[in-house]
Amino acid sequence: MPEVVTYDGLPAAAGGAHSLRVKRPADAHERVERFLAACTVPAGPATWTFSISAGGDPAATERLAAFAAELLGGPRRTQRIRRDWNVRPEAVPEVLEAIAAESGATTKYGASLATLSQSLPVQLIDPATGDPFAGLSPTAFGGFAVDGYGRGLGVSGIRASYGTAGSALSLWLNLPADERLAPAARHLQDHLPFRLSTKHWRRWQPTRARDGYRSSKLTSPLAG
After folding, report:
1. CB 117 within 8 A of CB 48
2. In this structure, is residue 79 part of a structural domain?
3. Are 193 and 31 in contact (CB under 8 A)?
């Protein structure tokens, strides 16, 4: 059973995601796409969701809801605190423009009034070969689930959020636990618009019974 190193950026207790540090949603999206092109290949289709939260300015909420109804149709899900719409990939630029038009709009709690979320499973690229890392796949780790939210060993993923009050990127990264680790981490850092945390790296090793995996904290491979 192989070992693997993961980066969880960021856990909910640490803010949930890295800020993309740009005001315009389209600029934030461009930063994410540059990272994806340089460091990943898709491991499945992207999922796009447009959301409007409750508790914001009524006029801005109405404008956004009217826009969504015209472009996207009826909401996929309606809850007391939020409405969600599925977004077709070709509609993404228009949704980003609509979010930018309401820049600064927040809920009463300070969160973005509207967001476009992008979720995508990926495989990381080996900078030495330009191909996905050999030996890193869900099958290689027996489909081991890390949590109840769909994260597992052997496949990475990103979740970007482009909002009226800011944009952020959440990372779940799986890297090889051998001599390829440090170059892989450096390659990722070189193509990200923020600094990776030093605190959220873990090494996963088979249990003694070899019926699963256990993890331990790992010093950042970018240290030193």
Report:
1. yes
2. no
3. yes
Torsion region of 108: left, alpha or beta (phi above 0 gives left; psi -120 to 50 gives alpha): alpha
Tell me the C-alpha distance between 224 and 220, whole Å.
9
Q: Is residue 223 part of a domain?
A: no
Distance from the Cα of residue 3 to its chain's centroid: 23
Measured at the CA of 40, the angle between CA 204 and CA 180, to 5 degrees, comes to 45
For residue 14, pLDDT beyond 90: no
pLDDT one-digit tens code per residue, 26-73: 999 999 999 999 999 999 999 999 999 999 999 999 999 999 999 999
37 within a domain of the structure (yes/no): yes
Three-state SS for 11? coil
- The structural domain count of the chain equals 1
Cβ-contact 175, 166 below 8 angstroms: no
Evaluate whether 82 touches 68 at the Cβ level (below 8 Å).
Answer: no
State the residue for tokens 């990722």. 188
Alpha helices in the chain (DSSP H): 25-39, 58-72, 92-101, 181-190
Q: Which residues contact 53 (CB under 8 A, 6 or more apart)?
A: 81, 82, 107, 111, 112, 113, 114, 115
Backbone angles phi, psi at 47, to 5 degrees: -115, 125
Residue 39, domain extent: 4-47+115-217
**Which letter does DSSP use for residue 141 in this model?**
G
